[in-house]
C-alpha cells in the first residue's frame, strides 16, 4: 500500500507582496519540506523579511497563495489563517520583547492563551527557560537582559506557542561570534528535538551555512535566484 | 523618554552663559511672582493658622473630590479615544484625532456656558463633568502618543500569540501609565480651576472650590500672606501628583522607543470598526461639537435658556440663594431667571430684583463697584470706577432687560440674519479686546519659545537637568489665582508703574505662567533628538549657539512650533490669573467672563465663538498650510 508524500511545510505559489506601488516580493514560488532548515539570504532590501512575514501572516499577499502543511493560509488580499493559527513561531530581530514584563511574565502571557491552569503554566515556563538556558531568570525584567539573553527569551516565547515552523528574522544579528555559535547550536538542537521546520533569514550566507539543509537566495528585485 | 546625555562629551554640553541668561528671564517672569508671595508668607507665618479650620478642610476635600471625578471622566473618555484615533482604522481617524484636541483649547467657562444650558445638572457633578470633558484630550494625547511609540515588532509578536486580543492585552499596561499621567494633569487642572466652578455656581446652587478661596482670602483685606497660606495645600497636592509623573517621564515610561524603532501600522478592528467609530464620534460630539454648535445656535438667535432648568433656577434665585463670595457672582442666574420665558411665574418685583442682582453681580465681577455686604458677598473688595460705557456691559444690560430670548421664528433666513448681526456686533464692540488678546498671546508665545528652547535643552543635556526641570515647573504648580496675585504684587512698584499700567504686564503674566509648558515640550523634543548629532557638530567646530540654533532647533522644529502654538492658545484662553490683573480687563476672554454674568445673549455667544476661533487660529493655519505634523509630545 503506497502512502502519499506529506505536504510541504511551506508552499508559496506566484507570491507578490506590494507596499503601496512598490513591489517587495515579485512572483515567488517555493517549497520547503518539513524539518528542513532553510537559509533565506540576499542583500538588504531584497524582501527576505517580507517573505518570512508573509509566511507568518504578518503581511498580506497582493497576488499568489501560501499553503502551510497543505492548508491554504493566505490568498490575494486575505489571510485565510490568522497569524496565531498558523503554527508559526517567530523570532524577531532584537527579540522584540515586551518591555513592561518580566521573563516569566512574557511566557505566561503566551501560555495564558492556551487556557492552561496556573500550576501547569508555571511548570511549562520553567521547562521553556531550561530549554533556552535561562533558568533562574524568571523575575528579571526584559529590558535588563543582554542581547543574547533577549534572543533566547524571544526563542522561548516562539516555542511556547508550540509551533511547527520556526521563523527566524536575523536572529544572530546583535550577537558576538561566540554567542552566535552557541545560539545557532541551540536552534539546531531544538529544531531537531521538536521536529521543526526552520526558515532562517540572514544577509550573511556564511552565518548559518553549517546548520542549513538548503540555501535560497533572493535578488534585490525581490525574486528568487 | 530617558535622557541620553550620559555619554555626551562635556564640551558639547549647553553654554552656561546662555542657560544662565534664559534662566534669569525665567526667574523674572515665572519665579518672581511666586517668590515674592512666599516671602510675604515668611514675614507673617501666623497666616498659616487659618489652614486647619474646618471650612478650609471641607473646601479642600470637596475640591479633591472634584478633581478625582474630573480625572476619572477624562481617563474613561481619553484612554480608549486616544488609542482608537491614533492606532486603529476607525473611520476618519486623523480628523477625529484633530477634533479631539479642541476641548482642551476651548475655555472651560465656555463649556460651562453651553452645558449648563443643555443639562439640568449643577454643582460639583456638573463641574466634574465639564472639567472631565474639557481635559480628556490630555489623556488622549498621552495615550495616543504612547500607542504610536510601541514598536511594530513587539506588536507583531503579540499578534503571533493571539491576534488583536493579545495586542490589546499586551499594550494596555503600556498605555495605562501615560494615560494615568494625562489623568493626573487633568486632576491638577481641575483642582486649580476657578472661573468654571464660579460660573456653574452662578447659574445654580452655590458651590465653592478651593481655588476661589485663595482669591477671597486675598480680597478680604488684601492679605497676601493669607492668600499664599491658603494656596499651600493646593500646591502640595499638585506637587504630590506631579513629582511621580515627572519621575516616570524621566524614566521613559511614557513610550517604549528604542534604537531601531519600527513604527506600527494601524490596527484593523474588523467588526468593531463601526462601534469604535461611533464611540469616537460620541466623544468628539460631547466635547467640542455640542459646545461650539450650541454657541452657534445661540448666536443665530436660538434660546439661551433651557426652560426646565431655568424655572427651578428662578425659584431658587427668588428664594435669595444668589449670595456668592466669588468675583463672578451669581448674577447670571438672576438675569436668566428674569429674562427666561419659562420664568413668567415670577412676579414683577422678583423679576426686577433678579435683574438688579444680575447687574450688580456682573459689575462686581468686573471689580467695578463696591461689593455690598447685604447679599452675602465679601466686603472691602478693591474698588474701581464704574465704566457703564464698557461695550460688554452695555450689550449685556441690553440683553438682560430684553424679554424675548428666542428670535428663531423666521427659520433659517432669520437665523442667518441674526447670526451675521450678532457676529458683526460682537466684532464691532470687542474688536479692540480681540486684538489685545491676540497681541498679548503673540508676545507671550514669542517670549516663551527661546527661553523654553534653551531651558529644555539644558534639562536634557545639562548637568543639573533634573533640578532645572523641577524649577521650571514651579509656575505651573501654583494655582493661577496665586500666580496672578503674585504678578500684581511683584510689578506694582513706582519704578515698574509703566509696565504695571500697560498691556505689557498681561503679556509678561502669560509668558511667566506658560513658559513652563513650552519648556516641557522642548525638553521632550530634545530628549528624542540624537545627541551624537550635536557631538558631531561640536567636533566640526560649532559653538553652543550654532549647535542649539543650527542643529537642534531644525531637528525639533515641529515641536518648537507646537510649543509656540500651545502657549498662544493657553494665553488667549487664560482667565483665572488674568481676571485679577487690571490691564487684562481688556482681553476678549475677560469680556466674555464679564458679559456672561449679566445674562446670555447672542452677543456673548458670538464673542465666545470669536475667542474660540482665535484660540484655534494658529493650529488651523498650520494644518491648512503645512504638511508636517505638530509635535506636542516627543
Q: What attributes characterize this protein structure?
A:
heterodimer, A: 225 residues, alpha/beta, Rossmann fold, 5-stranded antiparallel β-sheet, 5-stranded parallel β-sheet, 29% helix, 26% strand, globular, B: 634 residues, mainly alpha, MetI-like fold, 71% helix, 0% strand
Description:
- The complex is a heterodimer of chains A (225) and B (634).
- With 225 residues, chain A is α/β, with parallel strands linked by helices.
- Chain A has one domain (34-59, 82-217): P-loop containing nucleotide triphosphate hydrolases (Rossmann fold, 3-Layer(aba) Sandwich).
- Chain A has helices spanning 48-56, 103-112, 118-131, 147-160, 177-194, and strands spanning 10-19, 22-32, 37-41, 63-68, 71-75, 78-79, 88-91, 165-169, 197-202, 214-217.
- In chain A, strands 2-1-4-5-6 form a five-stranded antiparallel sheet, covered by helices on one side.
- In chain A, helix 5 links the parallel strand 8 and strand 9.
- Chain A is globular and about 45 Å long.
- The model of chain A has no long low-confidence stretch (mean pLDDT 89).
- Chain B is mainly α and 634 residues long.
- Chain B folds into two domains: 18-34 and 52-257 and 273-300 and 416-625, MetI-like (MetI-like fold, Orthogonal Bundle); 301-372 and 386-394, no CATH class.
- Helices cover 71% and strands 0% of the residues of chain B.
- In chain B, helix 2 (54-87) packs antiparallel against helix 3 and helix 6 packs antiparallel against helix 7 (152-192).
Number of strands of chain B: 0
Please name the fourth-level CATH homologous superfamily of chain A.
P-loop containing nucleotide triphosphate hydrolases
Class computed from helices, strands and strand pairing of chain B: mainly alpha
- What top-tier CATH class of the largest domain in chain B fits best? Mainly Alpha
Number of strands of chain A: 10
User: Going by CATH, what is the homologous superfamily of the largest domain in chain B?
Assistant: MetI-like
CATH fold category name of chain A: Rossmann fold
Question: What is the tally of helical segments of chain B?
Answer: 25
Biggest chain pair interface: A-B, 25 and 18 residues
Q: Per DSSP, what share of the residues of chain A sits in E-state strands of 2 or more residues?
A: 25-35%
The share of residues in helices of chain B is over 70%
% residues in beta strands of chain B = under 5%
Largest sheet of chain A: 5 strands, antiparallel
* Rounded Rg of chain B: 25 Å
Spans of chain A of at least 5 consecutive residues whose pLDDT stays below 50 are none
Quaternary state reads heterodimer
Q: How much is the radius of gyration of chain A in Å?
A: 18 Å
Q: What is the helix/strand order of chain B?
A: HHHHHHHHHHHHHHHHHHHHHHHHH
How many helices of chain A? The count is 5
- CA-CA gap between termini of chain A: 38 Å
Amino acid at each position: 500500500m503506497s502512502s502519499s508524500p506529506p505536504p510541504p511545510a511551506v508552499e508559496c505559489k506566484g507570491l507578490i507582496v506590494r507596499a503601496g506601488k512598490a513591489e517587495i516580493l515579485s512572483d515567488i514560488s517555493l517549497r520547503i519540506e518539513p524539518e528542513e532548515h532553510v537559509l533565506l539570504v540576499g542583500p538588504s532590501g531584497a524582501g527576505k523579511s517580507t517573505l518570512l512575514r508573509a509566511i507568518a501572516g504578518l503581511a498580506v499577499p497582493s497576488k499568489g497563495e501560501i499553503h502551510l502543511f497543505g492548508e491554504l493560509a493566505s490568498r490575494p488580499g486575505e489571510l485565510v489563517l490568522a497569524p496565531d493559527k498558523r503554527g508559526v513561531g517567530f523570532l524577531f530581530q532584537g527579540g522584540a520583547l515586551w518591555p513592561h514584563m518580566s521573563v516569566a511574565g512574557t511566557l505566561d502571557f503566551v501560555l495564558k492563551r492556551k487556557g492552561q491552569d496556573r500550576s501547569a503554566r508555571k511548570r511549562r515556563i520553567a521547562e521553556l527557560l531550561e530549554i533556552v538556558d535561562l533558568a533562574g531568570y524568571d523575575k528579571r525584567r526584559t529590558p535588563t537582559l543582554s542581547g543574547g539573553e533577549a534572543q533566547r527569551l524571544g526563542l522561548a516565547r516562539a516555542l511556547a506557542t508550540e509551533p511547527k515552523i520556526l521563523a527566524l528574522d536575523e536572529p544572530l544579528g546583535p550577537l558576538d561570534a561566540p554567542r552566535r555559535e552557541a545560539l545557532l547550536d541551540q536552534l539546531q538542537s531544538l529544531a531537531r528535538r521538536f521536529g521543526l521546520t526552520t526558515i532562517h533569514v540572514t544577509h550573511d550566507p556564511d552565518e548559518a551555512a553549517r546548520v542549513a539543509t538548503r540555501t535560497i537566495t533572493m535578488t534585490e528585485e525581490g525574486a528568487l535566484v | 523618554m530617558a535622557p541620553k546625555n550620559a555619554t555626551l562629551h562635556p564640551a558639547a554640553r549647553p553654554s552656561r552663559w546662555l542657560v544662565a541668561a534664559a534662566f534669569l528671564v525665567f526667574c523674572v517672569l515665572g519665579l518672581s511672582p511666586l517668590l515674592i508671595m512666599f516671602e510675604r508668607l515668611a514675614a507673617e507665618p501666623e497666616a498659616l493658622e487659618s489652614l486647619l479650620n474646618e471650612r478650609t478642610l471641607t473646601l479642600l476635600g470637596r475640591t479633591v473630590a472634584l478633581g478625582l471625578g474630573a480625572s476619572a471622566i477624562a481617563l474613561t473618555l481619553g484612554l480608549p479615544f486616544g488609542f482608537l484615533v491614533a492606532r486603529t482604522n476607525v473611520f476618519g481617524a486623523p480628523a477625529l484625532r484633530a477634533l479631539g484636541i479642541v476641548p482642551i483649547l476651548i475655555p472651560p467657562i465656555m463649556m460651562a456656558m453651553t452645558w449648563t444650558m443643555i443639562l439640568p445638572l449643577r454643582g460639583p457633578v456638573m463641574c466634574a463633568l465639564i472639567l472631565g470633558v474639557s481635559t480628556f484630550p490630555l489623556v488622549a494625547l498621552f495615550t495616543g502618543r504612547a500607542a504610536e511609540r510601541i514598536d511594530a515588532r513587539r506588536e507583531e509578536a503579540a499578534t503571533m500569540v493571539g491576534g488583536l486580543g493579545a495586542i490589546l492585552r499586551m499594550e494596555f499596561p503600556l498605555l495605562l501609565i501615560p494615560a494615568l499621567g494625562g489623568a493626573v494633569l487633568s486632576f491638577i487642572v481641575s483642582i486649580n480651576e476657578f472661573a468654571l466652578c464660579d460660573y456653574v455656581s452662578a447659574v445654580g446652587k452655590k458651590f465653592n472650590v478651593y481655588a476661589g478661596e485663595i482669591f477671597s482670602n486675598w480680597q478680604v483685606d488684601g492679605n497676601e500672606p493669607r492668600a499664599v497660606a491658603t494656596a499651600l495645600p493646593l500646591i502640595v497636592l499638585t506637587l504630590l501628583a506631579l513629582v511621580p509623573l515627572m519621575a516616570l517621564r524621566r524614566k521613559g515610561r511614557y513610550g517604549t522607543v528604542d534604537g531601531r524603532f519600527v513604527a506600527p501600522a494601524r490596527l484593523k478592528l474588523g467588526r468593531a470598526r463601526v462601534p469604535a467609530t461611533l464611540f469616537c464620534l460620541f466623544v468628539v460630539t460631547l466635547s467640542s461639537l455640542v459646545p461650539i454648535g450650541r454657541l452657534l445656535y445661540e448666536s443665530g438667535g436660538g434660546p439661551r435658556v433651557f426652560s426646565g432648568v431655568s424655572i427651578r433656577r428662578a425659584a431658587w434665585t427668588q428664594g435669595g440663594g444668589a449670595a456668592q463670595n466669588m468675583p463672578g457672582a451669581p448674577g447670571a442666574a438672576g438675569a436668566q431667571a428674569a429674562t427666561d420665558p419659562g420664568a413668567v411665574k415670577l412676579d414683577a418685583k422678583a423679576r426686577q430684583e433678579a435683574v438688579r442682582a444680575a447687574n450688580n453681580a456682573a459689575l462686581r465681577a468686573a471689580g467695578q463697584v463696591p461689593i455690598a455686604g447685604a447679599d452675602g458677598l465679601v466686603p472691602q473688595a478693591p474698588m474701581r470706577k464704574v465704566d457703564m460705557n464698557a461695550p460688554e456691559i452695555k450689550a449685556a444690560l441690553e440683553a438682560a432687560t430684553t424679554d424675548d430670548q428666542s428670535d428663531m421664528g423666521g427659520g433659517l433666513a432669520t437665523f442667518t440674519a441674526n447670526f451675521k448681526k450678532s457676529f458683526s456686533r460682537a466684532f464691532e464692540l470687542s474688536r479692540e479686546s480681540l486684538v489685545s488678546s491676540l497681541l498679548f498671546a503673540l508676545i507671550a508665545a514669542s517670549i516663551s519659545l527661546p527661553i523654553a528652547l534653551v531651558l529644555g535643552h539644558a534639562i536634557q543635556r545639562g548637568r543639573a537637568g533634573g533640578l532645572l526641570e523641577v524649577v521650571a515647573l514651579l509656575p505651573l504648580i501654583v494655582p493661577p489665582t496665586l500666580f496672578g496675585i503674585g504678578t500684581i504684587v511683584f510689578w506694582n512698584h513706582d519704578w515698574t508703574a509703566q509696565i504695571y499700567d500697560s498691556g505689557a504686564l498681561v503679556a509678561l503674566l502669560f509668558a511667566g505662567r506658560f513658559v513652563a509648558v513650552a519648556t516641557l515640550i522642548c525638553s521632550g523634543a530634545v530628549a528624542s533628538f540624537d545627541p551624537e548629532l550635536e557631538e558631531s557638530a561640536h567636533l566640526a567646530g560649532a559653538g553652543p549657539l550654532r549647535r542649539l540654533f543650527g542643529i537642534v532647533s531644525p531637528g525639533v522644529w515641529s515641536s518648537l512650533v507646537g510649543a509656540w502654538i500651545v502657549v498662544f492658545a493657553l494665553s488667549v484662553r487664560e482667565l483665572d490669573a488674568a481676571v485679577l490683573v487690571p490691564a487684562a480687563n481688556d482681553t476678549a476672554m475677560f469680556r466674555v467672563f464679564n458679559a456672561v454674568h449679566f445674562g446670555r445673549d447672542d452677543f456673548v455667544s458670538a464673542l465666545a465663538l470669536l475667542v474660540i476661533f482665535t484660540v484655534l487660529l494658529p493650529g488651523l493655519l498650520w494644518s491648512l498650510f503645512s504638511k508636517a505634523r505638530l509635535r506636542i509630545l516627543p
